[in-house]
Write a structure and sequence with these properties.
With about 160 residues, this protein is of the alpha+beta class. It has a single domain (about 1-155), classed as Sandwich (protein yfey like fold). It is about 15% helix and about 35% strand. The chain contains three helices and eleven strands. Strand 5 and strand 6 (about 70-75) form a beta hairpin.
Length: about 160
């Protein structure tokens, strides 16, 4: 067990602020924490614990974050991570789009692959990139011409506007 712990620390950098979350935010997850993982495995890989509290398989839906990284949010349905999201500019997509970037930069980065729909509550848009198999999506939420939130994961969870509802 000691060897496994050392390997995990070396592989995922427990000393950094984001640790296992280093890497792009995409429909497959964020860094080492992947969509489709059960929460205990994700916590083990992240060398941290999720808060608020453990999520049991009986929980229909809950949003949690790692204790050391409250700005990366993970939606968990029935004990499995189905979505990751952030409003923090430290995290970027594979194309380099971050919170705070212009809607024009996001459109340039993803081109015609983005579906643009009106924002539900504000003057803005949802810029949505769906995976080739149609089972996942990356959603860039723009208000006032700037990206304010990035979320990604399985459909339909990636597109929920009000988190778990």
């Amino acid at each position: 067990m000691k060897v496994l712990s050392v390997v995990l620390v070396l592989a995922f950098g427990a000393g950094s602020e984001t640790g296992a979350l280093d890497g792009p935010l995409g429909w497959d997850g964020l860094g080492a924490v992947k969509v489709g993982m059960e929460l205990p495995l994700a916590a083990k890989l992240a060398l941290d614990r999720f808060v608020p509290g453990d999520v049991s398989p009986a929980d229909e839906c809950r949003v949690v974050h790692l204790r050391r990284e409250p700005k990366a949010l993970f939606m968990v349905e029935k004990g499995t991570i189905v979505r990751v999201g952030t409003r923090d500019a430290r995290f970027a997509t594979e194309a380099g789009v971050r919170v705070g970037d212009t809607e024009a930069k996001a459109t340039e980065a993803y081109g015609g692959a983005l579906a643009v729909t009106p924002h539900k509550y504000e003057e803005g848009h949802y810029l949505t990139l769906r995976s080739k198999d149609g089972r996942s999506a990356l959603v860039l939420e723009a208000v006032g011409g700037r990206i304010v939130e990035i979320r990604a994961g399985r459909l339909p969870a990636a597109e929920y506007v009000e988190s778990c509802s």
